[in-house]
């Protein structure tokens, strides 16, 4: 579905990615995990063509992602960022409908699609006429998701979509997101720095460190046969309080 | 984008209306007869007299009052921006044609022809420098002529600073007349009059047709040695007028030899001491001396205010809308192309550092006098706030918003139209508001180069030392600035999307 071949990316003095190779299988959820600054967002930006690789290539459905073709490729991808991605001057409805209108969809078709999406994402339909400032963080992310899904893209790219939410809202949306992914059967790439969230969404997890793929596999494999000591440290650092308490009482 | 087109179309329509309905002294291509006058009362009165005369021939005269000094009037005349203005022979020979060595009237006439300019014969009075004393003091001391001063070495003189330094001023006067006085100081003219009243000064320098001669009961001492050059009043006009409007030249000649010194003094004091409008004075003179009945087109205060409001709005509307149309794209370019942006922002920034008065004066050699140079200067002056606000508005768009718009697959033009411009609308509008307020204030200076507007009232008020007249110009200008501000604030409701005007829910 998506092939990343020998891609490096340098920002001034910082090397964000060191010659990465990564294949994203179709119709599955691929989870990218790693510490802040390890290059997760950069990978998504390369796929959707917001930044250009310094070397190597990214292929989307067999087409090389280049500035010439990127505009049409983007319409086959949905992109959701952590927060602040909604256009504040447009209502939720208009945010979601913006691109379809630009492409000349009829009002009825847009309305129909929006009703469908509101139901899918459990977004209250009366909220559609509100502006982003009038929505809670969780609602804003549901609108972002609707906007990403509007054109029924082949791929969904989610960059820490739950990262800015309170734990309770986060748990609700997690469940909804997983249900949506399963219902749609789309190719999903989800970025997170939270190991529990990673396990919740994906069977296969890709762990990045300092712009390199450190290990790819299930959580079990990470625990049983870590690629190096960092893998173990990364997992241990994030164990939940319940795990820690459970271990102490044993 | 639609809303932006609407703004621009609106502005255009407004301008066309203003341009059609306010055909004032702003265009230099109309076939009217244009009369200029310098920025002192005597010149304005003479300008009014000529204006009335021209009108009596059936032509449409326009009087560009108090345009400036000799240079501005002379240049406007040879460029054809005005057709006629009153001048003095001394000024022509000593200042305009200085260095050409012309002295006699015939010399002057010949020299002027080279410039395509004709001169009437002298109108009668000679407005030269003179020495004045209180009538009663002069009478008591039996002083009639300047040479009589030699008999009174104890007299104290107070001369204007200019007179102390001029070529025909005190040092040469003293030498020519062999005057013995020691107590001679340079001081401000107004103080000199007061000193004369109190008796601390006995003689001062004065223009021979000065209105204050009567007011202070002064005696003008006869220049018995012919020290001061003649400043005979004449009227200059373009020679093409003889073909274009021969009857106008004919009526101008009617003034020759018709205005005596005492008559001019009377008219000057009516204007500056009794506040009689110059138009009225001119009309009275013509009916008295030439038996020519002219309608004194005395404007009501309201009528005059309306006319100046129209002129002012004309200057502001054209220059501001041109500035809006140009500076929004410049601001966008600056934001999109950082290299070019530095150049654009730098350039409009430098324009703003030029004092507005200087900018106006720079325009005269390029565009002459009247509306076009004033509008150009105001246009340049209004650029910076809009360009800079547009630019910073773009800089302030959050990166997440840019990224989201790009990631949706919108091409650059659509991103600008659908996302970026609506988001910077508030900032752009704030820039326009600042520009409008600056523009309305600066437009008052337009009167200095003959563009009219509220500044004309202020200028006349300063000349006549008339506070009420100054306020009649300054207060409406301030009110207009306030109205502009309120209007642009109200426009936020239409041009700033609702989502940007809401406060976040707590
Ligand atoms: N536009 C940029 N300019 C400079 N450095 C950047 C830029 N974007 C990312 N980086 C740097 O590249 C590295 C990887 O960034 P990113 O992919 O955003 O990391 P992550 O999403 O994993 O936190 C970081 O060191 C970051 O500081
Ligand atoms: Mg990131």
From TrEMBL, chain B:
Pfam families: BPD_transp_1, OpuAC
GO CC terms, sorted: ATP-binding cassette (ABC) transporter complex
GO molecular function: transmembrane transporter activity
InterPro entries xref list: ABC_Gly_betaine_transp_sub-bd (IPR007210), ABC_transp_perm/SBD (IPR051204), MetI-like (IPR000515), MetI-like_sf (IPR035906), PBP2_ProX-like (IPR041894)
Gene3D superfamilies for the chain: MetI-like, Osmoprotection protein (prox), domain 2, Periplasmic binding protein-like II
Residues annotated as domain ABC transmembrane type-1: 309-492
Segments traversing the membrane: 6-27, 313-334, 354-381, 436-457, 469-488
Main location: membrane
Assigned keywords, A-Z: Membrane, Transmembrane, Transmembrane helix, Transport
Cellular compartments annotated: Cell membrane
Alphabetized PROSITE patterns for the sequence: ABC_TM1 (PS50928)
BP terms from Gene Ontology: glycine betaine transport
Membrane disposition: Multi-pass membrane protein
Similarity remark: Belongs to the binding-protein-dependent transport system permease family.
Protein name: Membrane protein component of ABC transporter for proline or glycine betaine
């Amino acid at each position: 579905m998506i092939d990343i071949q020998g891609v490096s990316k340098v920002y001034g003095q910082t090397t964000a990615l060191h010659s990465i190779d990564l294949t994203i299988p179709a119709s599955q959820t691929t989870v990218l995990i790693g510490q802040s600054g390890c290059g997760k967002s950069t990978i998504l930006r390369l796929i959707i063509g917001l930044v250009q690789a310094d070397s190597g290539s990214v292929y989307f459905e067999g087409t090389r992602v280049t500035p010439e073709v990127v505009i049409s490729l983007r319409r086959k991808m949905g992109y959701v960022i952590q927060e602040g991605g909604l256009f504040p001057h447009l209502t939720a409805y208009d945010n979601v409908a913006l691109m379809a209108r630009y492409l000349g969809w009829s009002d009825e078709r847009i309305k129909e699609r929006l009703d469908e999406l509101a139901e899918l994402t459990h977004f209250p339909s009366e909220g559609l006429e509100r502006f982003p400032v009038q929505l809670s963080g969780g609602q804003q992310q549901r609108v972002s998701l609707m906007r990403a899904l509007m054109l029924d893209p082949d791929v969904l790219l989610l960059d820490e979509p739950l990262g800015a939410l309170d734990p309770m809202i986060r748990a609700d949306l997690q469940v909804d997101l997983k249900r949506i992914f399963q219902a749609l059967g789309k190719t999903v790439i989800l970025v997170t720095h939270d190991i529990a969230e990673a396990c919740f969404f994906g069977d296969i997890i890709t762990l990045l460190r300092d712009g390199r793929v450190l290990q790819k596999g299930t959580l079990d494999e990470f625990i049983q046969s870590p690629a190096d000591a960092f893998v173990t440290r990364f997992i241990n650092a994030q164990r939940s309080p319940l795990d820690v308490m459970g271990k102490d009482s044993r | 984008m639609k809303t932006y087109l609407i703004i621009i179309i609106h502005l255009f329509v407004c301008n066309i209306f203003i341009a059609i309905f306010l055909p004032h002294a702003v265009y230099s291509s109309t076939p009217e007869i244009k009369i200029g006058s310098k920025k002192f009362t005597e010149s304005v009165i003479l300008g009014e007299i000529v204006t009335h005369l021209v009108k009596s021939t059936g032509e449409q005269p326009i009087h560009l009052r108090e345009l400036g000094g000799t240079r501005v009037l002379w240049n406007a005349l040879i460029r054809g921006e005005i057709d006629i203005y009153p001048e003095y022979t001394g000024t022509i020979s000593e200042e305009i044609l200085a260095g050409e060595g012309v002295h006699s009237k015939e010399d002057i006439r010949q020299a002027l022809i080279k410039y395509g300019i004709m001169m009437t014969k002298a109108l009668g009075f000679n407005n030269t420098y003179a020495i004045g004393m209180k009538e009663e003091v002069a009478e008591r001391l039996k002083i009639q002529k300047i040479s009589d001063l030699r008999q009174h070495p104890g007299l104290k003189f107070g001369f204007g600073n200019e007179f102390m330094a001029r070529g025909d001023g005190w040092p040469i006067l003293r030498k020519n007349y062999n005057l013995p006085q020691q107590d001679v100081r340079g001081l401000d003219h107004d103080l000199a009059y007061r000193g004369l009243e109190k008796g601390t000064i006995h003689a001062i320098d004065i223009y021979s047709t000065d209105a204050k001669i009567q007011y202070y009961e002064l005696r003008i001492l006869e220049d018995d040695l012919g020290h001061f050059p003649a400043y005979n009043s004449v009227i200059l006009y373009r020679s093409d007028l003889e073909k274009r409007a021969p009857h106008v030249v004919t009526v101008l000649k009617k003034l020759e030899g018709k205005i005596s010194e005492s008559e001019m003094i009377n008219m000057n004091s009516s204007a500056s001491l009794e506040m009689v409008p110059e138009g009225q004075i001119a009309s009275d003179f013509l009916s008295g001396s030439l038996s020519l009945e002219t309608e004194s087109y005395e404007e009501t205060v309201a009528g005059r205010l309306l006319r100046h409001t129209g002129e002012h709005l004309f200057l502001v509307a054209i220059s501001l809308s041109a500035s809006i149309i140009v500076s929004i794209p410049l601001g966008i370019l600056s934001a999109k192309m950082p290299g070019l942006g530095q150049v654009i922002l730098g350039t409009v920034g430098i324009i703003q550092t030029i004092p507005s008065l200087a900018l106006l004066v720079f325009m005269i050699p390029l565009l002459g006098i009247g509306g076009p140079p004033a509008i150009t200067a105001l246009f340049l002056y209004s650029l910076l706030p809009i360009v800079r606000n547009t630019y910073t508005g773009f800089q302030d768009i959050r990166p997440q918003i840019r990224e989201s718009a790009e990631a949706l697959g919108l091409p650059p033009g659509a991103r600008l139209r659908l996302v970026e411009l609506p988001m910077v609308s508030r900032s752009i509008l704030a820039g326009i508001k600042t520009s409008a307020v600056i523009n309305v204030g600066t437009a008052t200076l337009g009167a200095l180069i003959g563009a009219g507007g509220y500044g004309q009232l202020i200028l006349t008020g300063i000349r006549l030392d008339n506070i009420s007249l100054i306020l009649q110009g300054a207060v409406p200008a301030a009110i207009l600035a306030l109205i502009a501000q309120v209007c642009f604030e109200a426009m936020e409701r239409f041009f700033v999307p609702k989502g940007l005007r809401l406060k976040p829910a707590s």
